[in-house]
Amino acid sequence: MREIEYGRFSDSAGTYAVASSAAPNTIRVYAVSAGDRSILCTISGVQGSPMASWGTTWLHCAPEWYDAVQERALDTYWGAVAGGGTPN
Fold first, then answer.
1. I need a labelling partner for 54 at 20 to 30 A (CA). Which of 17, 19, 73, 86 fits?
2. 55 — alpha (psi -120 to 50), left (phi > 0) or beta?
3. pLDDT digits (tens, 9 = 90+) for 20-77
């Protein structure tokens, strides 16, 4: 399966890419820096009850940050799908 990038968003900590996953009803969020990517989280249940699983590098962050990133990632995904993108 070819990965689809649905879009990007930024906050004060960095820039993030929202992409498809091989698993159905799931997206991946990557931290992007100088062209490199590292997995931030995987969000399953995007079409029902979303649940993020965070990469170990990010386990020190504040709970509010997790909520904000998950919300922005889902907004990016749904914006792309509503705009004619391909859902996974």
1. 86
2. beta
3. 999 999 999 999 998 799 999 999 999 999 999 998 888 888 999 999 999 999 999 9
User: Between the CA of residue 85 and those of 20, 46, 69, 78, what are the distances in Å?
Assistant: 11, 15, 21, 9
Contact 61, 68 (CB under 8 A): no
Three-class SS state of 69: helix
Q: Please state the separation of Cα 26 from the chain's center in Å.
A: 9
For residue 38, the tally of other CB atoms under 10 A from its CB is 11
String of b and e for 41-65 (b: at least 16 CB within 10 Å)?
bbbbebeeebebebeeebeeeeeee
pTM: 0.89
